[in-house]
């Protein structure tokens, strides 16, 4: 096993999205806060290019990285300090200029990452989502299995397993029905609540009007580069964001409705644990798992929604939009990069891969540009681990296509002879 670091020099031309039908972090639901920047920098015009974030934290205690994050060659220049070494923030610097105007994009987030109206992140403020503590311990009783389908959407809980207190949502391959492409068999070995929502798995970057595709190479064209993720956000919450696509129903509403039904059908399963007092989904205790198209979709949505954990297999890609806002300018209220995992199949060790237009290699590039924790770990079917922080991006080298699946697949299954099991256990918090 090798642990190879890389920087933004990796980034090259990405292949168009062409998936076939056929990624231990602080996941406890406790509040997180990061010190503010010591200098906001100048936000881009028209709500576009963000300013350079200062290196030291603002007033107040927070999580300030000991070393700087991996530089990005994309919009925004050099990022501020990364890592998670706790420290007391210093005095905030001079704030930057006025923040950009809202784009009308995903969740109404600012088009530029100028931050607050004063510019940059306010001193002592947070640019990470606050994960509220659990309202109470989860209370699953009994030893039976609840396994059924609600409106054609599989839902499952094994009461005999220790309750994880996490709801796992699965999305699978392009054009496929509900499900995660087979990874459910691994997840069901543990005490996760799981649900596979229906959605439009045919929506891809290829669906975006040509006028926006033609402008996708211009990183300053916010309107073009918000389209691909804003359409996917419609799948999540049903809010109309683009004028060329509409979808009846949404993942969030389907999930809440399924939970409410399960509360009646499986009263000892404590499904209501995942809803707040207002009946809204507590996304901090939701883990999202994708395969191929599903990985692409969760990557986009999680750039704006604070999930507890994001696990992607054989995805995501840039989908023809390497300058997409979800990649270069994700919301500070989205899921932090250190809660996101990538498992991607390669034929050779990652450090030996230098073909910039390789489809699978482009997935790593996309994740790094989107702010996921950098550093690729090569994993062989004979690699026992251990795996630990800060490892998040994994190149799955080889596989036999059966017991230990390789290539464009989900990797994790319930076969104890599967050589990927040690890594799968780590990714799902089971080691």
Beta-strand content bin = 5-15%
Give the helix tally: 8
User: Strands across the major sheet, in which order?
Assistant: 1-11-12-10-9-8-6-7-5-4
Uncertain ranges: 1-127
Query: What is the subunit arrangement here?
Result: single chain
Structural class: alpha/beta
Annotation, overall tally of beta strands:
12
Q: Which bin fits the share of residues in helices?
A: 10-25%
What is the end-to-end distance? 18 Å
Instruction: Name the shape in a single word.
Output: globular
Write down the Rg.
21 Å
Describe the main β-sheet briefly. Answer: 10 strands, mixed
Q: Averaging pLDDT over every residue, what do you get? A: 77
Q: H/E order of the elements?
A: EEEEEEHEHHHEHEHEHEEH
What would you note in describing this structure?
This protein has helices at about 185, 210-215, 220-235, 250-265, 295-300, 325-330, 360-370, 420-425, and strands spanning about 1-5, 60-65, 85-90, 145-150, 155-160, 165-170, 190-195, 285-290, 310-315, 340-345, 375-380, 395. With about 425 residues, the chain is α/β, with parallel strands linked by helices. The strands form 2 sheets. The chain has a 10-stranded mixed beta sheet. Strands 2-3 form a two-stranded antiparallel sheet. The radius of gyration is 21 Å and the shape is globular. The relative contact order is 0.16. Mean pLDDT is about 75; it is low at about 1-125.
